[in-house]
Amino acid sequence: MTPSTDTDTGLPLDMIIFGGVGDLAMRKLLPALYMAHMHGNLPASTRIISTGRQDFDRAAYLAQVEEQSRSFIAKENFNEKSWDGFLRLLEYVRLDVQAAPDFSALAKAAHPGAQRVFYLATAPALFTTICDKLAESGLVDQNARVVLEKPLGRDLESAVEINEAVGKHFAESQIYRIDHYLGKETVQNLMVLRFGNSILEPLWRAPNISSVQITVAEEVGVGSRAGFYDSTGAMRDMVQNHLLQLLCIVAMEPPTSLSPDAVRDEKLKVLRSLRRFGLADIARDTVRGQYAHGVSGNQEVVGYHEERNVPPDSKTETFVALRAHIDTWRWSKVPFYLRTGKRMQRRSSKIVVEFANPPFPLFPDMPGGVANRLVIELQPEEAIKLQIMAKQPGSGMQMQQVALNLDLQSAFQQRRAEAYERLLIDVVRGRLTHFMRRDELEAAWAWADPIIEGWNTLGEKPHAYPAGSWGPAESFALLARDGFAWVE
């Protein structure tokens, strides 16, 4: 799913990370950049400049990287010589974006004539200030690129404001709105699965498909993110971006090419075809949950209300399940069930495409349920399984479901890059396909906003579910009344 041409400028690279001492930078960005460096995927003249409020000199910053970031690199990928070479790329500039920031030190540290990538690993409220100051300091030119971390706003209005503010200084072709799910190997492989195999495309529509499930389940709770999470919730944090992007790839029409705009045009059509929810639809077709005390990973854990920095009367959802419809000929009357939650039974992200059962029950002993499923597992393992019916050995025609299993990790022996590594390389090489365009983002918010507003109007508390479970009972009832069940 990579465009045939890159827009690599051939210039030296300055990768400038705002929030360079933060959790995201230490856990994800720096390990990803180390892997890209080790495998020769960064320009030879690369520098990584981290900014933060801490009063570090370069030695103190490198000590922080050694302490906080090195442990997130798998042992089999770690090489002392490569690590030493990577550390030589790092620099640190003290810069407090929240306190009348002075960008003169950053402008002095940046190399004249370099291609600059600004990674904004900060709160979205700071994006406007950062971009304004970058432009005032003369750091934005036609070769500059800016990476915006999610969540981009908390509703359509704030998303438009951010897009307008960033768009004053950066052209749309310079803006990379990152969603790390689009960097996962299996998600990108879904495009090849759909459009590179003639066996599936004729079946990829109603009435051949009876339903689609998309699940992103997390075993962890809110942890140190409780303060942020309580003002956000699962709908804004996961559904509006990650799950809708997965839905788009499943449901989109074949693009005319693999160019960024051709792919994103088709995703936009899906978002605009999503049926809007009224109050009655919200009450019937959505389920909000909030985890309570329970057992997770063989350990007793507290409920959401007992988490630090969570108000005791909070109505913030940690779980969402809903039934969506796409009003197009291809997907007429096919329900899309979306589900995400924290403190679920285990970490699991998957897409389940359920095919319609045979129209006539030729085999009376055929087990009940769905005969054929395509299960695309995104994490923790990456695999594609086609479940079909087969005859059991012996006399008679007893049947059971078996899986044709493509284990991607055993099928391809070469190293598999992590999502952030792959996406950062795309930014450096100017590949926009796996990043959201402005109209995509705003269309997603236009669909999600009425649901959030409807929950506020209804004023109902989220349904409690024990930590370590698969969510509230109401989410199972959501599918059961249509004759389906979540595939665990």
TrEMBL record:
Checking SUPFAM superfamilies in the record gives:
Glyceraldehyde-3-phosphate dehydrogenase-like, C-terminal domain (SSF55347), NAD(P)-binding Rossmann-fold domains (SSF51735)
Provide the residue positions that the database annotates as binding substrate. H180, K184, E218, D237, K342
Q: Does the keyword Oxidoreductase apply?
A: yes
Q: Where is the Glucose-6-phosphate dehydrogenase C-terminal domain?
A: 191-486
E.C. code: 1.1.1.49
GO MF term list: glucose-6-phosphate dehydrogenase activity; NADP binding
Q: Which GO terms describe its biological process?
A: glucose metabolic process; pentose-phosphate shunt, oxidative branch
Instruction: Respond yes or no to whether keyword NADP is given for this record.
Output: yes
What range(s) does the Glucose-6-phosphate dehydrogenase NAD-binding domain occupy?
16-189
Q: Where is the active site?
A: H242
Q: State the top-level EC class.
A: oxidoreductase
Annotated signal sequence range: none
Its UniProt entry gives the catalysed reaction(s) as: D-glucose 6-phosphate + NADP(+) = 6-phospho-D-glucono-1,5-lactone + NADPH + H(+)
The protein depicted here goes by the name Glucose-6-phosphate 1-dehydrogenase
* Native species: Telluria aromaticivorans
Query: Which lineage do the record's taxonomy fields give for this organism?
Result: Bacteria, Pseudomonadati, Pseudomonadota, Betaproteobacteria, Burkholderiales
